[in-house]
Amino acid sequence: MRFNEKGQVEKQQHILIRFGRLLIPHYPHILAMLASTGLFVLFSTAAYWLAASFLTALFQGTLEATQDGGGLNGLLKQWTALLLVGQTPQATLARAAIAIVIAFFGKNLFGYLQLFYISHVEQRVIKELRDRLFSHLLSQDLAFFQRERRGHLISALLNDVEQLNSALNKSFTKLVRDPLNALLLLVLLFAVSWKLTLAAIVVVPALGWTVQLLSRRIKLHATQVQELFARMTGHLQETFSGIRVVKAFVNEPFEIDRFRTHTASHYGSSFAQERLRRLVIPLNEVVGILIVSAILYLGGELVLVRGAIPSEDFIRFLVLLFALLNPLLSLTNLVANVRVAEASGSRVFRLLDTRPEVTAPSRPVKIKYDKELRIEKVSFRYTSDTPLVLEEIDLSIPRGEHLAIVGRSGSGKSTLLNLLPRFMDPSSGRITLDGLSLTALDPHELRRLFGVVTQQIVLFHDTIRANIAYGLGDVAQEAIEAAARAAHAHDFITELPEGYETIVGEQGSLFSGGQRQRISIARAILRDPQIVLLDEATSALDPESEEAVNDAIGGLTAGRTVITVTHRIATIRHADRIAVLEKGRLIDIGAHEELLGRCEVYRHLAHQQHLAAAELSGGDE
Fold first, then answer.
1. Please, which pLDDT band fits residue 396 given cuts at 50, 70 and 90?
2. Taking the mean position of all CA atoms in its chain, how far away is CA 227?
């Protein structure tokens, strides 16, 4: 075995073992499935044995009850004759027919039960695996979501989990049922004629060869199908999120063509995969039939020419041999299912194996915030092979101060803001709260100190009430209305027909930008944060909405530590201090007037907004 083949086998076993662990909690249903499978195999084998007896009785008129034993075959024939032989040939046929009906009824009953129990396990495992993956994804930091495409994550949660579970559960049923069924039939075949059975066994390597030939190609196409499905999901999410831009630029035909390209690629790989999967059983059946035909010729000569085997045994052998083809062909299809599961499982378990970079300490220190939030020599990069976004930032923010952070686009302002609640951890340096490193604190408890208002307003498809109370559980209506009043949102909310029970729509699409922002500010006010983070909170609003939102922000920031990120200097001239970032470095910090006099970057930003001339002329007067 070559190295890459060995690695593939180990990887496949690894996925099967990991999936098997998910089945352990459902052992009662699995045990019931195994019991049903055992009874299914017994009734199935009995049905084929009795069918052979029925054919013998039909063509010969009776069944012989051998007295000499004759090994297992003779013993079974004796029991069968005692069960089926009646006073007349018609009575024998009637008994055989009734016995066959009972056997096939038992076979189908327990066949249904085994599928019933495995279906229960299948649906539970799908739910649990999706829940586990979703919880794991939410434990990742922001950098993870900036690296991974949303479409791939959604596809892994929905499609890959479904494919993995469906393929492996089907394989699990076959892995138990078909080997047991094939083994029992082989025992009976050897009992009837060991010579013919040895000749027939050549079908097994022939079937294995055809499966090996196709399975590699199936795995390749299965991987492509999952990847293309993820791309298609990502395109849908991107298009629907940006539907306003699509329509504004009259670009619907382009997006339709792009989607058709994705679906065409997905169709090509899916069809190629299914074509190969569907080919496994017919190809193996052709190979099997060729072998069976050779056995027919050989057995016919033994019966008709040499008389070496009784005709009853030959009929029984043929029935059992045809019955053996079904589990053998099913086992060959099992390999194709495992290949599909391997492709989906590699994507699911890759995500599950991604360790969160922001983790809670085993023994978190109790949070205390009385003095300052301090940034000590902090540098940050998103991945090891990307340049630094922040470099050697050193900054102290006393409690109750209003600090503004300004700089050109791409200077690292929002990244610095994201480090403070530990949405991400610095690549080097540390951030402390009253002298305690943030890594010593429980991230969830730390984030309860913060109220965050961003330029990208996030509202969920729920009621206004639920959006304001988001993350706080059961909150009194009076508290929600008080927060809305402080955010200057209560008046327009009460004018709505359903008031606070109004559904906001997807991303709050039923409201204006100013209204959405005031709802998000009410959400932050209700949280009663000690530190307020404002990230370009008014940059996308018109002057009238901006004025209303600034009034709302005033209700949020009073008596709290405030850190504002903005490029609009007019909104932060009265901040206690203003930090200026340039290419990820802190180049100056001071009051507005001080920076106008000494910081060239700040003066340039002010000139761009026509503020510096007015300030300087006012100072001359």
1. very high
2. 13
CA-based R_g, the chain, Å: 37
Distance between CA atoms of residues 368 and 252, nearest Å: 54
Q: How far apart are CA 433 and CA 198, in angstroms?
A: 78
User: Can you say how many angstroms the Cα of residue 237 is from the centroid of all Cα atoms in its chain?
Assistant: 16
Cα(75)–Cα(77) distance, integer angstroms: 5
Q: Which residues contact 575 (CB under 8 A, 6 or more apart)?
A: 402, 403, 404, 564, 592
d(CA 261, CA 255): 10
Which residues neighbour 470 within 8 Å (Cβ) at sequence distance 6 or greater?
460, 523
Distance, in Å, from the CA atom of 532 to the CA atom of 512, rounded to the nearest integer, reads 23
Confidence band for 256, pLDDT divided at 50, 70 and 90: confident
Task: Tell me the C-alpha distance between 579 and 573, whole Å.
Answer: 12
426 CB contacts (<8 Å, ≥6 apart)? Answer: 378, 379, 380, 390, 419
For residue 288, the surrounding DSSP H or E stretch is helix 252-304
Asked if 557 and 384 touch (Cβ cutoff 8 Å), the reply is no
Nearest to 568 by CA among 445, 423, 413, 457: 413
Helix or strand run (H / E) with residue 407: strand 402-407
CB-CB neighbours of 452 under 10 Å: 22
Are the CB atoms for 240 and 232 separated by under 8 Å?
no
> How far apart (Å, rounded) are the C-alpha atoms in residues 603 and 592?
10
Amino acid at 464: I
Q: Pull the structure tokens for residue 468.
A: 């304001």
Residues 6+ apart with CB under 8 A from 562: 401, 402, 403, 531, 532, 534
The separation between the first and the last C-alpha atoms of the chain, rounded to the nearest angstrom, is 88
pLDDT tens, position by position, 516-527: 888 888 888 888
Q: What are phi and psi of 176, to 5 degrees?
A: -90, -50
DSSP state, residue 448: T
Helices (DSSP H) in 305-371: which residue ranges? 311-352
Mean pLDDT of the chain: 79
| DSSP assignment letter at 162 | H
Q: What is the pLDDT of residues 205-219, one digit of tens each?
A: 655 666 666 666 666
Q: Which two tokens stand for residue 392?
A: 């050697």
Q: Is the pTM of this model over 0.85?
A: no
Are 493 and 529 in contact by the 8 Å Cβ rule? The answer is no
Among 525, 534, 531, which Cα is nearest to 405's?
Answer: 534
**What is the distance between the alpha carbons of residues 486 and 560, in angstroms, rounded to a whole number?**
15
Amino acid of residue 501: E
CB of 117 closer than 8 Å to CB of 30: yes
Closest by alpha carbon to 172, among 24, 322, 11, 346?
24
Partner residues linked to 531 by β-bridges: 450, 561
Helical ranges in 139-160 per DSSP H: 142-147, 150-155
Nearest by Cα to 311 from 606, 579, 573, 56:
56
Tell me which residue of 148, 46, 145 sits closest to 99, measured CA to CA.
46
Residues 6+ apart with CB under 8 A from 450: 420, 421, 529, 530, 531, 532, 533
